[in-house]
């Protein structure tokens, strides 16, 4: 009797046996009984973060591979980090506690948040410190994520596990009939190196710095050799490339088509059928996959197809990889459909472009920093350009190198207009985007308009080794042209500093400097401009002053406010955020 016959007879007798992999089970439909070999590990799902709670960063031992402990950089002890799931229009709040030995920030990738909430490396939280992130959810419903953005430490932090989903639900999507609940599944795709199992050892060489730190085995939601049991019905899969550098060419092992319904910034304006798509680090694409044509007992694999890419050595870009096995085990229905119509997207008009900015990506093999934008590498305190609010800009990105560069902009989403002059775009390019892959010697044109927040944000390569090497620039979103109601420059006779801490609850300190004796007022206003409190109203001598503002004493609820220093006919205004 061979092994398969032994297991079959044992199961028929109703006996439970403990076996090493593969585990063999029955799956039944109305036509026949099928013997399925269950190898691998069931797909794991991280816990859901409770809005308003604490997100604690720490080094933690996790069982990534069964029976083995992996030291990861976790949020609340979870790898991947807990998934934020929140509705559009709500206010997100999290107290970030840094219990790790290095400074850290959280960047909310793709989320439109104020400058001080964006996780810029200039706003790092030191070891043992904490910081409250809070901002309104104004993005479209969609698949976003969060990850470390510490200065020159991003790649290592993310590789060791510091990342998680940020999913925005929009009730308006319900009428479209998309799969929901257990049939709406997020998949974070990352790669690691098998030679280092069970650890996430991060020790990049010069070659890794050139092409990115690539692995040879995929983890899906932190699960190696992953499988997922599915029913003969329609599913929505939210694909996130959370890898440091690896690009995936997503397809099914039998070549069957699926529908692309969303890109980085939410739903497309149509469901587009495709048999493959490229997914670069930082990108997200939602697909609808229908298993109804398969039989119970069959399996199909989500994989990355091979493709030609620069580089060589042990760890290469473009290798074929099996990502996730789907085992068809049930006949339940999701009730979901492929929508015949999707919400429209207002595409920018190129005739309304106010400014064209040129970005040239180059490689300097002989320098300290190999990867450059316009010949520059990142400096924390340097502002590389300013862009006014509400002004449509064209960003023309020229890749003058034989490298792959997924370029990502913080703050608001953009639209890809053309590749090498062609406006006939792949479906994963068309729609709202915050990350776009620039292939070797390719020119890509983007259209972008910043409407919500002012301040300092980042534009960089999302190959994280390239980013940490300095392939990143600061840009500043400024007041709209012709609008002067909020001054950003200090008059010579006084100066207003940013309040600290910010965000705060309930107290914060406001510091200002008077260089000429005169009447001074310091007032608090809400977003609509209604006065909330007067902190100072008196004649003051020259000097530096610091006022403690207690929101509780003025019965002010959480939200975004302005504080304004007024001297004669001049005033200076800054934002502050009161958390719950």
Can you characterise this structure?
The chain is mainly β and 580 residues long. Helix content is 5%, strand content 44%. Strands 15-14-13-17-22-19-20 form a seven-stranded mixed beta sheet, with no helix packed on it. Strands 3-16-24-23-18-21 form a six-stranded mixed beta sheet, with no helix packed on it. It has a five-stranded mixed beta sheet with strand order 4-7-12-11-9. The model is unreliable at 1-35 and 483-491 (pLDDT under 50).
CATH architectural category of the largest domain = Sandwich
- In total, the number of strands is 41
Residue windows where pLDDT falls under 50 for at least 5 positions: 1-35, 483-491
Strand content: 35-45%
Shape, principal axes of CA atoms: globular
* Largest sheet report: 7 strands, mixed
Calculate the mean pLDDT score and round it.
90
Helix content: under 10%
Counted up, domains total: 5
- The N- and C-terminal alpha carbons lie at a distance of 68 Å
Q: Could you say which structural class the secondary elements and strand pairing correspond to? A: mainly beta
CATH class of the largest domain: Mainly Beta
CATH topology of the largest domain: Immunoglobulin-like
CATH superfamily of the largest domain: Cupredoxins -  blue copper proteins
Number of helices: 4
**CA gyration radius, whole angstroms:** 26 Å
Trace the largest sheet across and list its strands.
15-14-13-17-22-19-20
